[in-house]
Amino acid sequence: MLSVELPAQLHRSSQFILRSALPTGGTGKGNETCRRNLAYPRHPLRLPLEVREHVDHDVATASLGGSVKENSIAAMFDRLRGRSTKIHGLLSEFAPPRLLDSEDGYNFVLAQGRVFGVPQSLGPLDLSSEDISTKPGVIVGNSLPEVRMRAVRRAVATAPRIPVTSMLGIPANVAFYGANHPALAPLFSPGHDDDIRVLDPPREVEISNPLIGRLDYALRTFRARMARANVSENDVEAFIDTRDPVSQLLACSRGGIHFFQGAPLTLGANPWMIQIEKASTLFLPFITPGNSYGFDRRVSAIYRIVRALLLSDDCVGIVTNIRSTKRDLPVLFEAPSLAEKTYYLPFFLEPPRPVQKRPRSFLFTSSWHQHEANFYSRGGVDAAMIFAEISKRHRDAELVMRCSLPASLPDSVQTVLDAPNVRIIDQPISDEEMHRLFAEAQFYLLPAPSLHSMSTLQAMANGCICILADSWGSDEYLHDGIDGLRISGREGKNWEYRVHEAFLAERYAGLETPDLAFVQRAVEAIDRLLLDDSQMQAISETARIAAARSNSAEAGRKAFAESLRDIRGRVVRSSRA
């Protein structure tokens, strides 16, 4: 069974009060039929809205025990197309208020002869004694499909741009998702290659019957494909729920090849390709970073879903910056044919401008998204303790930490961060300021249990001496004592590579407290280096040369163009078939 844990703030606890407005007089057959069909209580009915419950439209009962969970976005769009058969046309001003549905932040209520779309954020309301039509966000219409359509339009217009932060096109008509991520932006920088052009994302998606039809077709095709892969209906719907309606509408509104980064945020409405570093991100959000030790592909529903997606003709290419990932994917998914559409494509950087280094200066950064929990997963606790020991031996050492800090830190770590030779930058900074931090730092501290390719590459390109842990994949970037330092202690504790299934299993537990043995090994290696200026200079220059030789933007664009030519050919062959 697929499950995904939602952040606490996403759980709703508001309640909606419906008060009876049923006439007290009259004993006619019509009134009795209405009473029987509605099973409406004479006292206020309180309906919990923590989850999106589906209330049976034939019999609305006083108790919601045993109700059925809403069947994801498919049912929403089924009803948008007018296929619901459970709306009985009780649009009578004499009928009591009736909850028709609760979905995507709205309660759809039949009251006073009209249908109201009421934002759940408004809290409890009494429809029998107040006019709610003027309240913020309330939508009023004559039918459920009409109000639901307007609610979807409003959601599309006001929602963040999903996982789509930018769309970039090239001659293959690739709609690119996440193009402003620093790991991939150099491939799409305008002005470097006439073959690459930048397109702005659409500000709105015009919802139309043809668009709904394309999404409906994509959903039916996806469900059929998963049924052939022996994925249960519940697991399929759980997966669909993680691909939100706005993003799928946007996907259906754009032709061409869609390019995703990290996870396949698609139901297969278009041909698509994906960039990954390690295979486990393909399983997001059901398997999250640092929590993959329990993965067993023999019983994993998300494994079967992703495998079916990757093996479909809709998936036209997989690119990865790690050679071992390219090698391992056909083994992990037990599909030798995956090798034909998997491409090795290293990350690339424009050559940075050399800047004078500050002696004994250390830099630590968290990831691009700057989530505070990333301080732990990037090894921030051990980085702080390593610097604390170094600064005792070298009083002129200084540390810059570009990160958002957790609200609560161990006392020993907080003491380090409060020191006058430690500077915390927890506010957004420009790309130029970020480049300057790397350019000026002499050492880059990244004792994370996992590989962070782009940060490592940026540091090496700027001549920083990287202090990495023995994380999986880091040996593809850095060679201990030659172009940086790799400190042992993470392998076996925080990750293991399962050779028989070619899978990287990770667990980040314990990173909230210092690993004193690891810290001591790092301090000794750094201290030896600080006492040898010539070796420091040699490592710095070797790192700079290695990054320039293997990761130039010009070579990256050329390699990407070559892979796209192959991918275009695959799309053409698939369409002909």
Topology:
Blueprint: E1 15-18, H1 29-38, E2 45-48, E3 53-54, E4 68-69, H2 72-80, E5 98-103, E6 106-111, E7 114-119, E8 139-141, H3 144-158, E9 167-169, E10 174-176, E11 197-199, H4 209-228, H5 233-241, H6 245-253, E12 257-261, E13 272-276, H7 301-311, E14 315-320, H8 323-332, E15 342-344, E16 361-365, H9 374-377, H10 380-393, E17 398-402, H11 411-417, E18 422-425, H12 431-440, E19 443-446, H13 453-461, E20 465-469, E21 485-487, E22 495-498, E23 503-506, H14 516-530, H15 533-550, H16 553-576
Parallel strand pairs: 10-12, 12-13, 13-14, 14-15, 16-17, 16-19, 17-18, 19-20, 20-21
Antiparallel strand pairs: 1-2, 3-4, 5-6, 6-7, 7-8, 9-11, 22-23
Helix count, DSSP H or I runs of 4 or more residues: 16
Distance between the termini: 35 Å
From the alpha-carbon coordinates, what is the Rg to the nearest angstrom? 28 Å
* Count of domains: 3
User: Which structural class matches the secondary elements?
Assistant: alpha/beta
Mean model confidence by pLDDT: 75
